[in-house]
Amino acid sequence: QVQLVESGGGLVQPGGSLRLSCTASRSIFSGWTMGWYRQAPGKQREFVASITTGGSTNYADAVKGRFTISISRDNAKNTVYLQMNSLKPEDTAVYYCNAKLANLMYWGQGTQVTVSS
Questions:
Q1: Nearest Cα to 25, choosing from 7, 1, 6, 8?
Q2: What b/e string do you get for 34-62 counting C-beta neighbours within 10 Å, with b at 16 or more?
């Protein structure tokens, strides 16, 4: 059974920070590109960031200049992280973890991030 389990979401004030975590089944983590997507109410799911097994990262242009963001992974723990700083209300969304290898793709159940005062 392939599983991606996210955690770390919650309510944060504007300007605050959150670190999301996604722990993957051992069978899919090694060699897979891990990523984060988000979906705000009434909008399509959009790419946020990704990281390869070797540590190469990619960030969506839409988020690069909006808040400080960093994706990282700990291969020993089968976990990928998304550190988000200087959050704004428009960053409110459900954040989904994604695992991709060639034509295979898996999703987590999502974790809610709400930025509000």
A1: 1
A2: bbbbbeeeeeeeebbbbbeeeeeeebbee
The span from the CA of 101 to the CA of 70, in Å, is 21
pLDDT digits (tens, 9 = 90+) for 56-70: 999 998 777 666 788
pLDDT at residue 11, rounded to an integer: 98
Question: What whole-number percentage of the chain has pLDDT above 90?
Answer: 72
- At 66, which amino acid appears? R
pLDDT at 56: 94
Q: Ramachandran region of residue 15, left (φ > 0), alpha (ψ -120 to 50) or beta?
A: left
Q: Are the C-beta atoms of residues 46 and 61 closer than 8 Å to each other?
A: no
Looking at 14-18, 20-24, 27-31, 111-115, which range is the least confident one?
27-31
Is residue 20 within 8 A of residue 111, CB to CB? The reply is yes
- What is the rounded distance in angstroms from the CA atom of residue 49 to the CA atom of residue 20? 12
Give the whole-angstrom CA distance, residue 53 versus residue 69: 19
